[in-house]
Amino acid sequence: MKLSALWLAPILVALIAAARAEPAAPATIGPGRIVCNASFCELGVGPRPVQRIRVIASGLPEDDTRRLRKCTGVAPPCVVTVDGLEQGDKSKILATRIAWQD
């Protein structure tokens, strides 16, 4: 029993620290051109986008993720505004909503 308690202690400390962490800040990025590949999407903002923001699309509805798969950079540009939560730093955002600029 002692061995399992020693093994469990670091896990409990990590869980408590995660619970006390600050919540992710809401953010709105765009409008800008989004380009996706099989694993991620990047949004460039501005006329000559130097800064690119990685967009995590796992929280979006299936219709939006299906439409994002067509935004490869070869097809006509996809221009969007992304609402979501910052993930660690300002270069990553977990998308909760995408507004398409048709």
Could you characterize the architecture of this molecule?
The chain has 102 residues and is an alpha+beta fold. The protein has one domain (24-100): OB fold (Dihydrolipoamide Acetyltransferase, E2P), CATH 2.40.50. Helices cover 25% and strands 42% of the residues. It has two helices and five strands, in the order H-E-E-E-H-E-E. The protein has a five-stranded mixed barrel. A hairpin with a 6-residue loop joins strand 2 and strand 3. The longest helix is centred in the N-terminal third of the chain and has 19 residues, at 2-20. The model has no long low-confidence stretch (mean pLDDT 81).
Helical amount: 25-40%
Enumerate the spans where pLDDT stays under 50 for 5 or more consecutive residues: none
Shape: elongated
Strand content: 35-45%
Q: Mean of residue pLDDT?
A: 81
Task: Figure out the total of helices.
Answer: 2
Q: What CATH architecture would you give?
A: Beta Barrel
Question: If you consult CATH, what is the topology?
Answer: OB fold (Dihydrolipoamide Acetyltransferase, E2P)
Radius of gyration: 18 Å
Order of helix and strand elements from N to C terminus: HEEEHEE
Largest sheet: 5 strands, mixed, barrel
**Count of β-strands:** 5
Report the CATH C-level class: Mainly Beta
Q: How far is the N terminus from the C terminus?
A: 62 Å
- Please give the order of strands in the largest beta sheet: 1-2-3-5-4
